[in-house]
Amino acid sequence: MRYRRVRRFLAVLGCCSTLILAACQSASPEVTQPTDTSVVQATESSSFTSPLVFDSPLARGTPHATPTAPTPLPGRAVVRGGIISRLTGMPIADTSVYLIRGVGPNQDEMPPVWPGPVEGDIRGRTDMDGWFVFKDVPPGIYYMAIWAPLDYVIVEKQEGSLNKPLSLKVQGDQMLDLGLMAIYWP
Q1: How many other β-carbons are positioned within 10 Å of the β-carbon of residue 56?
Q2: Taking Cα atoms as reference points, which of 69, 92, 53 lies closest to residue 179?
Q3: For the chain, what is the domain count?
Protein backbone atom coordinates (compact mmCIF):
# COMPACT_ATOMS: atom_id res chain seq x y z
CA MET A 1 0.00 0.00 0.00
CA ARG A 2 2.74 2.40 0.95
CA TYR A 3 4.70 1.49 -2.19
CA ARG A 4 1.73 2.51 -4.38
CA ARG A 5 1.48 5.90 -2.69
CA VAL A 6 5.16 6.56 -3.24
CA ARG A 7 4.88 5.54 -6.94
CA ARG A 8 1.80 7.74 -7.41
CA PHE A 9 3.54 10.67 -5.71
CA LEU A 10 6.64 10.25 -7.91
CA ALA A 11 4.46 10.07 -11.05
CA VAL A 12 2.63 13.29 -10.12
CA LEU A 13 5.94 14.96 -9.24
CA GLY A 14 7.41 13.92 -12.60
CA CYS A 15 4.41 15.34 -14.50
CA CYS A 16 4.58 18.63 -12.61
CA SER A 17 8.32 18.92 -13.22
CA THR A 18 7.82 18.30 -16.94
CA LEU A 19 5.14 21.01 -17.13
CA ILE A 20 7.29 23.50 -15.25
CA LEU A 21 10.30 22.86 -17.47
CA ALA A 22 8.18 23.17 -20.61
CA ALA A 23 6.76 26.49 -19.40
CA CYS A 24 10.22 27.84 -18.59
CA GLN A 25 11.54 26.97 -22.04
CA SER A 26 8.78 28.79 -23.95
CA ALA A 27 9.80 31.80 -25.99
CA SER A 28 9.73 34.99 -23.98
CA PRO A 29 9.80 38.52 -25.34
CA GLU A 30 13.16 40.22 -25.62
CA VAL A 31 13.68 42.79 -22.88
CA THR A 32 15.72 45.85 -23.74
CA GLN A 33 17.88 47.11 -20.91
CA PRO A 34 18.73 50.79 -20.63
CA THR A 35 22.12 51.79 -21.96
CA ASP A 36 22.47 54.68 -19.55
CA THR A 37 23.80 53.72 -16.11
CA SER A 38 21.84 56.37 -14.22
CA VAL A 39 18.40 55.36 -13.09
CA VAL A 40 17.11 58.90 -12.72
CA GLN A 41 18.15 62.21 -14.15
CA ALA A 42 16.66 65.01 -12.08
CA THR A 43 16.92 68.45 -13.60
CA GLU A 44 15.36 71.78 -12.78
CA SER A 45 13.57 73.11 -15.79
CA SER A 46 10.90 75.59 -16.68
CA SER A 47 10.20 74.14 -20.12
CA PHE A 48 9.74 70.56 -18.85
CA THR A 49 11.67 68.91 -21.66
CA SER A 50 12.76 65.63 -20.22
CA PRO A 51 15.35 63.31 -21.77
CA LEU A 52 13.78 59.88 -22.19
CA VAL A 53 16.70 57.52 -21.88
CA PHE A 54 14.86 54.23 -21.76
CA ASP A 55 13.52 52.17 -24.66
CA SER A 56 9.81 52.11 -23.95
CA PRO A 57 6.53 53.06 -25.57
CA LEU A 58 6.87 56.42 -23.86
CA ALA A 59 10.42 56.89 -25.11
CA ARG A 60 9.57 55.85 -28.68
CA GLY A 61 7.58 58.80 -29.92
CA THR A 62 5.71 59.51 -26.67
CA PRO A 63 2.17 58.43 -27.59
CA HIS A 64 0.63 60.89 -25.15
CA ALA A 65 2.07 64.24 -24.14
CA THR A 66 3.50 64.64 -20.67
CA PRO A 67 1.11 66.43 -18.36
CA THR A 68 1.45 70.18 -18.18
CA ALA A 69 2.60 71.37 -14.80
CA PRO A 70 1.13 74.47 -13.24
CA THR A 71 3.22 77.37 -12.06
CA PRO A 72 4.15 76.74 -8.42
CA LEU A 73 2.52 78.85 -5.73
CA PRO A 74 4.89 81.33 -4.03
CA GLY A 75 7.29 79.44 -1.75
CA ARG A 76 6.04 76.05 -3.02
CA ALA A 77 7.19 73.67 -5.77
CA VAL A 78 5.84 71.42 -8.51
CA VAL A 79 7.41 67.96 -8.96
CA ARG A 80 6.74 65.99 -12.13
CA GLY A 81 7.94 62.72 -13.66
CA GLY A 82 7.07 59.41 -15.27
CA ILE A 83 7.51 55.83 -14.10
CA ILE A 84 8.14 52.72 -16.21
CA SER A 85 8.99 49.13 -15.40
CA ARG A 86 12.71 48.49 -15.75
CA LEU A 87 12.01 44.94 -16.92
CA THR A 88 9.34 45.58 -19.57
CA GLY A 89 9.69 49.28 -20.39
CA MET A 90 5.93 49.69 -19.98
CA PRO A 91 4.44 52.62 -18.05
CA ILE A 92 3.27 51.97 -14.51
CA ALA A 93 -0.27 53.28 -14.77
CA ASP A 94 -2.87 54.25 -12.21
CA THR A 95 -0.86 53.61 -9.07
CA SER A 96 -0.19 55.68 -5.94
CA VAL A 97 3.04 57.65 -5.68
CA TYR A 98 4.27 59.22 -2.44
CA LEU A 99 6.78 61.91 -1.53
CA ILE A 100 8.14 60.92 1.89
CA ARG A 101 9.64 63.68 4.01
CA GLY A 102 13.20 63.14 5.18
CA VAL A 103 13.90 62.49 8.86
CA GLY A 104 16.90 63.00 11.15
CA PRO A 105 18.63 66.07 12.52
CA ASN A 106 18.78 67.75 9.09
CA GLN A 107 15.53 66.21 7.81
CA ASP A 108 17.55 64.62 4.97
CA GLU A 109 17.60 60.89 5.81
CA MET A 110 15.30 58.18 4.50
CA PRO A 111 13.06 56.88 7.30
CA PRO A 112 14.57 53.55 8.47
CA VAL A 113 11.15 51.89 8.26
CA TRP A 114 8.33 53.12 6.08
CA PRO A 115 5.19 51.07 6.67
CA GLY A 116 3.10 53.29 4.39
CA PRO A 117 1.80 56.83 4.22
CA VAL A 118 2.01 58.92 7.37
CA GLU A 119 1.10 62.49 8.17
CA GLY A 120 3.30 64.85 6.16
CA ASP A 121 3.73 62.50 3.17
CA ILE A 122 2.35 63.80 -0.11
CA ARG A 123 0.24 61.44 -2.21
CA GLY A 124 -0.24 61.50 -5.97
CA ARG A 125 -1.28 59.07 -8.68
CA THR A 126 0.14 58.12 -12.05
CA ASP A 127 -2.05 58.53 -15.12
CA MET A 128 -2.58 55.82 -17.72
CA ASP A 129 0.80 56.66 -19.30
CA GLY A 130 2.75 56.51 -16.01
CA TRP A 131 3.09 60.30 -15.53
CA PHE A 132 2.49 62.11 -12.23
CA VAL A 133 2.46 65.75 -11.06
CA PHE A 134 2.73 66.89 -7.44
CA LYS A 135 1.43 70.45 -6.99
CA ASP A 136 1.97 72.75 -4.01
CA VAL A 137 4.94 70.83 -2.52
CA PRO A 138 6.54 72.52 0.52
CA PRO A 139 10.35 72.92 0.41
CA GLY A 140 12.33 70.09 1.96
CA ILE A 141 14.09 66.83 1.28
CA TYR A 142 11.89 63.99 0.06
CA TYR A 143 12.14 60.36 -0.97
CA MET A 144 9.73 58.67 -3.35
CA ALA A 145 7.72 55.46 -2.87
CA ILE A 146 5.32 53.76 -5.26
CA TRP A 147 2.55 51.36 -4.33
CA ALA A 148 3.23 47.99 -5.93
CA PRO A 149 0.93 45.02 -5.51
CA LEU A 150 1.11 44.07 -1.83
CA ASP A 151 4.02 46.40 -0.94
CA TYR A 152 5.74 49.73 -1.55
CA VAL A 153 8.75 50.22 -3.84
CA ILE A 154 11.25 52.93 -2.90
CA VAL A 155 12.59 54.74 -5.98
CA GLU A 156 16.37 54.33 -6.11
CA LYS A 157 19.26 55.83 -8.01
CA GLN A 158 22.42 54.04 -8.96
CA GLU A 159 25.67 55.25 -7.37
CA GLY A 160 28.53 53.17 -8.70
CA SER A 161 27.56 49.56 -8.07
CA LEU A 162 25.08 50.41 -5.30
CA ASN A 163 21.43 51.45 -5.43
CA LYS A 164 20.44 54.13 -2.92
CA PRO A 165 17.09 55.78 -2.27
CA LEU A 166 16.59 58.79 -4.53
CA SER A 167 16.78 62.00 -2.50
CA LEU A 168 14.88 65.01 -3.88
CA LYS A 169 15.85 68.47 -2.63
CA VAL A 170 12.75 70.54 -3.29
CA GLN A 171 13.04 74.32 -3.08
CA GLY A 172 10.38 77.01 -3.07
CA ASP A 173 9.26 78.42 -6.46
CA GLN A 174 10.80 75.41 -8.21
CA MET A 175 9.50 73.24 -11.04
CA LEU A 176 11.39 69.95 -10.64
CA ASP A 177 11.22 67.57 -13.60
CA LEU A 178 12.38 64.08 -12.64
CA GLY A 179 12.11 62.79 -16.19
CA LEU A 180 11.33 59.16 -16.81
CA MET A 181 12.31 56.78 -14.01
CA ALA A 182 12.68 53.01 -14.37
CA ILE A 183 11.94 50.88 -11.32
CA TYR A 184 11.77 47.15 -10.67
CA TRP A 185 8.06 46.39 -10.77
CA PRO A 186 6.44 43.10 -9.84
Answers
A1: 22
A2: 53
A3: 1
pTM recorded for the entire structure? 0.64
Contact 178, 133 (CB under 8 A): no
Residue 152 lies in a domain: yes
Residue pLDDT, tens place only, 3-22: 566 566 656 555 555 555 55
- Give me the domain span that covers residue 99: 43-183
Cβ count near 80 (within 10 Å): 23
The domain that contains 117 carries what CATH number?
2.60.40.10
Nearby residues of 158 by Cβ (< 8 Å), 6 or more positions away: 37, 38, 39
CB count in 10 Å sphere of residue 161: 5
Q: Is residue 30 part of a domain?
A: no
Report DSSP letters for 29-89, one per residue: PPPPPPSSS-S---EE-SS------S-STTTTT-SSPPPP-PPPPTT-EEEEEEEEETTT-
Longest dimension (CA), the chain: 82
Is 24 among the domain residues? no
Q: What is the pLDDT of residues 75-84, one digit of tens each?
A: 999 999 999 9
